[in-house]
Design brief:
alpha/beta; seven-stranded mixed sheet; two-stranded antiparallel sheet; binds S-adenosylmethionine; binds 2-acetamido-2-deoxy-beta-D-glucopyranose; membrane; S-adenosylmethionine-dependent methyltransferase activity; transferase
């Protein structure tokens, strides 16, 4: 015969143990779900990312990322505008930026130059206008003869090809380490990279990352020195950052 005290203990303890077991299995289930999710997320960073840069969530695969980029770039109405009404205004402003860089001895007429994410090539036309003849653009969508087809995560160029690389599309990089690594690979030793980035607010809805300071760039350009950071007014971008690839 159980005593009253024993009965009471059983009545209290049994549901309590049951509760603990249930909570534990629920916890295990939830953690498994989350790990599974983060493992299957293709937009995970290509290497540990510095603080002050965040990859945007929501790209379910690399194809989903590319499709989103192409959705705007291939828009026929927009392409019409970029190549007509927008053309001269943008070429003129890019030409001012490049003239400034020439005055600071960061760009020369003889520099072999690449513009990354150049869309219809206004920046390439600007380089040619200021006398940098040997220049080409690269984008997911080609626009001959100024822009050839290529993904900035895997540039279609040999190592140590260019003296100068310009880009205002860093915020479109899903894999920022690859974006920077490819620039450092295809630049010659002593070559110059100029990025126009946005630090003061969030970039547009086609961006794949948000940058909060130049520190992540300094960390990722590990074979280069930071030459200059200055404020600009560049088509919605507010900061010009200049790196020079190490000579040895
Ligand atoms: C905001 S637009 C800038 C276009 C041009 N630089 C300008 O200022 O007019 C971004 C460009 O980056 C291109 N882009 C996005 N992801 C890319 C990738 N992975 N490789 C190459 N280009 C890419 C897009 O196709 C688009 O033309
Ligand atoms: C872009 O996406 C919209 C809907 O989100 C679609 O209607 C349109 O056809 C797409 N355009 C291109 C060029 O892929
Ligand atoms: C560079 O090219 C521009 C435009 O063709 C020309 O006016 C300028 O004199 C050239 N500069 C040098 C240093 O050759």
């Amino acid at each position: 015969m159980k005593t009253d005290l024993q009965k009471l203990t059983l009545i209290i303890i049994k549901p309590f143990i049951l509760f603990i077991l249930l909570s534990l299995s629920l916890f295990a289930f939830i953690s498994f779900q989350t790990t599974g999710q983060s493992l299957s997320k293709p937009a995970a960073p290509d290497a540990a990312l510095p603080s002050d840069i965040k990859i945007r969530p929501g790209y379910s695969s690399y194809d989903a990322y590319l499709n989103r980029q192409l959705n705007k770039t291939l828009n026929p109405k927009l392409r019409q505008i970029w190549t007509t009404r927008d053309w001269d205004r943008k070429v003129t402003k890019f030409a001012q930026f490049f003239d400034d860089l020439k005055r600071r001895d960061l760009l020369f007429n003889a520099s072999k130059s690449l513009c990354i994410g150049a869309r219809v090539g206004q920046e390439v036309a600007a380089l040619k206008r200021v006398g940098v003849e040997n220049s080409v653009g690269m984008d997911l969508v080609p626009y001959p003869p100024l822009v050839i087809k290529g993904d900035f995560h895997h540039q279609p160029f040999d190592s140590e090809t260019f003296d100068f690389e310009f880009s205002n599309v860093f915020d479109h990089a899903l894999y920022p380490w690859k974006f920077v690594g490819e620039i450092e690979r295809t630049l010659k030793r002593g070559g110059v990279c100029v990025l126009h980035v946005l630090l003061s607010r969030r970039a547009d809805k086609y961006s794949a990352n948000d940058l909060y300071s130049v520190k992540p760039l300094e960390e990722m350009f590990k074979n280069s020195e930071l030459v200059e950071v200055r404020s600009i007014d560049g088509f919605g971008l507010d900061t010009e950052v200049v790196f020079r690839k190490n000579k040895n």
